[in-house]
Specification:
The chain is α+β, with helices and mostly antiparallel strands. The protein is built from nine helices and 17 strands. The structure holds adenosine-5'-diphosphate and magnesium ion (MG).
């Protein structure tokens, strides 16, 4: 081979090597670079969405769906007779694992601190109201008797033992979505996730090191219409509203958040409450508690837990806690700030 030929060959080898490096880099980046996956699914009686940015986003999104489905089916469901909750309800208590013990302890604390405005032993009363396909205002005597079979004061948790001091049905309807968000966050912490926004009905997990825009739903509009936008860092946001589930009878609206004192839908002048917290279970439970308690007592309860709140009342007035005052923009001219 002449000198010219040798030089040509060297050049060709160098080119091939460079091409190989480029290809390997492309393949490596494809594996390492975070991708975004968005998916919707139905669980916990509501529409859920997962938007996740991670190196394995498709798998992570699938995993998130299975966490919610598994939690519902095996732990929280009252319909599935084999779930932990259904078994506790039919046996009047029993042994629980550490996670369930801690969920129940947190909720019992909210029951106590809310003076019983939050009560997750209202299962029978909720069932009587239905709020499913067929609904009607219950017979007052039936309701009265069902109300007697409620009461968190009769629930005892010590270690892994849960004892129902009376017959009642524990119901995670007001906190299950938040519990799911906490379990999802535990999974995300162990994954390669950079950012995620997970919504389960009116409860949302914001995950990642940035600020997120979160809309507060228009109580009178459809699911995509907002009256205010929050600009907040990672955490959990939960909204309870009378518009979520209700029926109308004789021109009156009956919604699904019950005042445990009366057994009837809570009337506190509030149409929606949004609670922002580090904790999913607290944001969800407190949004329900605050709805029943109303603005003044509700905001005080949330503050006791270090949570921030946005209340919207029947006059379209928006009440914002101190920590959110610079982080909210009311975007619907029909709504105005309390100050
Ligand atoms: P959503 O289901 O719309 O997210 P909430 O988180 O406010 O709304 O929970 C409402 C559900 O919680 C009801 O459907 C019922 O199962 C249960 N519930 C109703 N009133 C109370 C209450 N005062 N305390 C605890 N749970 C309640
Ligand atoms: Mg709730």
């Amino acid at each position: 081979m002449g000198e010219g030929g040798l030089a040509r060959m060297k050049k060709r080898i160098a080119l091939l090597a460079a091409a190989a490096v480029v290809m390997i880099t492309v393949i490596a980046l494809a594996v390492i670079l975070p991708k975004t996956t968005e998916k919707s699914f139905f669980a916990m009686n509501t529409v859920c969405t997962a938007k996740i940015k991670s190196t394995d986003s498709k798998n992570d999104a699938a995993k998130i769906e299975s966490i919610v489905a598994g939690l519902e089916e095996n732990v929280l469901s009252r319909q599935n007779g084999n779930s932990l909750t259904a078994r506790l309800n039919s046996n009047g208590g029993g042994e629980v694992d550490e996670k369930m013990g801690s969920y129940m302890s947190v909720l019992l604390d909210v029951c106590k601190k809310s003076g019983g405005s939050f009560d997750f032993t209202l299962g029978e009363v909720s069932d009587i109201w239905g709020f499913g396909a067929e609904t009607a205002v219950p017979n007052p005597y039936v309701l009265y008797n069902a109300l007697k079979r409620t009461g968190y004061e009769k629930l005892d948790i010590s270690g892994s033992s849960v004892t129902f001091g009376d017959k009642f049905l524990v119901d995670f309807g007001a906190a299950g979505k938040g519990i799911a968000l906490d379990e999802i966050r535990t999974y995300l912490d162990e994954s390669e996730t950079k950012e995620a926004v997970i919504s389960i009905g009116g409860s949302i997990l914001l995950y990642g090191e940035k600020n997120f825009s979160v809309g507060i739903r228009n109580p009178e509009g459809n699911a995509g219409s907002y009256v205010a936008i929050l600009d907040i860092p990672a955490g959990c946001v939960s909204t309870s509203g009378s518009y979520e589930r209700y029926f109308e009878e004789d021109g009156k609206i009956y919604h699904h958040i019950i005042d445990p004192e009366t057994g009837y839908p809570a009337k506190s002048g509030v149409v929606s409450v949004t609670v922002v917290s580090e904790s999913g279970i607290l944001s969800d439970a407190l949004s329900t508690a605050c709805f029943v308690l109303g603005i003044e007592k509700g905001a005080a309860l949330a503050a006791e837990y270090g949570c921030e709140t946005v209340f919207i009342d029947e006059n379209k007035t928006v009440f914002v806690s101190d920590g959110l005052r610079d982080r909210i923009e009311i975007t619907d001219a029909a709504y105005s700030s309390a100050e």
